[in-house]
Amino acid sequence: MEPMGNDIDVHLGKRLRRRRRLLGLTQQQLAGACGVRFQQIQKYECGANRISAARLWQLSEALEVPVGYFYDGLSDVAHREPAQESEGGGEMFARKETLDLIRAYYQLGERPRRRLLDLAKSLNGDHEAV
């Protein structure tokens, strides 16, 4: 079963919001970069308005991601039960502390990032062994 048009619009909007927040941009800042009003970004993010191909290209440039980023995970949407929507990853990325951690991580240089990632993985491994 493939997702309906509105499901796709909602999915793209969620990905748009996630990336915008990850970069610490306001809707106003993103709107300015794309030449639209912030209300238009709001409508894209909630899936109320469909994003045209040209606008998706502008958004991908402004958010420094390939266009395909917005479609990542879309095939999973078709196979997901409604109850699964609130479980797992999506909710985790909505938390402020998660976004703060990700922002801090990307402010580090490449080598400290790798060291921090290795540390986090080792801590997780220690936790599972207990």
In words, what does this structure look like?
The chain is mainly alpha-helical and about 130 residues long. It folds into two domains: about 1-85, 434 Repressor (Amino-terminal Domain), CATH 1.10.260; about 95-130, no CATH class. It has helices at about 5-20, 25-35, 40-45, 55-60, 75-80, 90-95, 95-105, 110-130. Helix 1 (about 5-20) packs across helix 3 and helix 2 (about 25-35) crosses helix 3. The chain is globular, with a radius of gyration of 17 Å.
How are the SSEs placed, and which strands pair?
Elements (H helix, E strand, L loop, with lengths): L4 H18 L4 H8 L3 H9 L6 H10 L11 H6 L9 H6 L1 H12 L2 H20 L1
Helix pairs in contact: 1-3, 2-3
Give average pLDDT, whole number.
82
SSE string = HHHHHHHH
How large, in whole angstroms, is the Cα Rg?
Answer: 17 Å
Which word captures the global form?
globular
Summarize the main sheet: none
* Low-pLDDT sequence parts: 81-87
CATH topology of the largest domain: 434 Repressor (Amino-terminal Domain)
